Amino acid sequence: MNDRSGQLSNALVPIISVVLGFILGGLLMLATGYNPLLGYQAMFRSAFQSSISIGEILVGAGPLIFTALGFSVANSAGFFNVGLSGQALCGWVASIWVALSMPDSPKAVVVPLAILAGAAAGALAAAIPGLLRAYFGTSEVIVTIMMNYVLLYFANHIVNNVMAPTIISNKGVTKIVGTNGLLREEWLTNLFGGSRVNMGFVLALIFLVLVWFLMKRTTLGFEIRSVGINPFASEYAGMSSRRTIVISMLISGLLAGLGGVVQGLGTFGNYFVQGSSISIGFDGMAVSLLGNGGSVGILLSALLFSILKLGGQGMQFAGVPSELANSVIPLIIFFVGINYVVGRALDKAGEHKKEKKKREVRTVQSLNHKQEGADLE
């Protein structure tokens, strides 16, 4: 019974967080003189107005699923991988570089090689903080935050000074990858009215299943979760916490790198110099937290975030400024961040109901005893 109530609480916390985010966003609109009903109506109308917009929702959700999965794996091992942005950026640059370097090769060769290159680049970027944490006890939070900056400027250096001039369009911008290197398929584009939807979302769905299987049905997944719960007990049981730390960070970076691959070969088709860390890394963390790290939760959260981002642009047609439209997602993240408070409120409500039920039972029992005494007399 307690397990059921705990599962119900875990399911309700993200739902309540989303609802509270929408409510507080609506209150902000009211406080600034805008109609929240019209604003939200415009948001969802814009997000679902055509097959093209639905395709764009899938486009936005694909990279978020990968970065969310990457964060989930590291978090299961007890680590807070804040370097998803840098790792995804490595995957983006590496995949574009490989694809542009093979302009005449068949798609069956270019795409797998580009995907592998992006995944390897993300894993390599995550291996550094993983090794430092495993063998020197450094804080992975600090190291990954700093590496986001290092990888950002290193990626920009590669585009500006290392890539061959033949694959550069303008200063800091590569050429568009040919059809032999893109994740887009004509039948999928036509299905969604010409949107940028690509096989990246399908790939993300496959990895949702693969990561679930890894974490729930394999020995490695059991070791990752065990180290995350108690590394000392895991060591006592014969598991190598150092090896598990490094492997979990490698998997986390690999998944983030794949998010960058989808961003590059699926969404944009090229790479251009970035002025700051790409948003899919930090948004992926929020998606994972909102989805409780589970595959189904991550899928639904990624779709929600993509809907909010796409629909937020449509709120401006209802007269709502983009700043207010974009405030809903941070508010949801805020309530996800204080999910302990939301969870405690649910627990208190549950305890209150149980106590009330007990009082009712005691009252009925007392009345029965009195009635029995009266019958005896």
Automatic annotation (TrEMBL):
Region (Disordered): 352-377
Sorted UniProt keywords: Cell membrane, Membrane, Transmembrane, Transmembrane helix
Main location: membrane
Localization (cell): Cell membrane
Record-linked Pfam families: BPD_transp_2
Record CDD domains: TM_PBP1_transp_TpRbsC_like
Transmembrane segments: 12-31, 52-73, 79-100, 109-128, 197-215, 245-273, 285-308, 328-346
Source organism of the structure: Candidatus Enterococcus murrayae
Protein name in the entry: ABC transporter permease
InterPro entries linked: ABC_transp_permease
Mode of membrane association: Multi-pass membrane protein
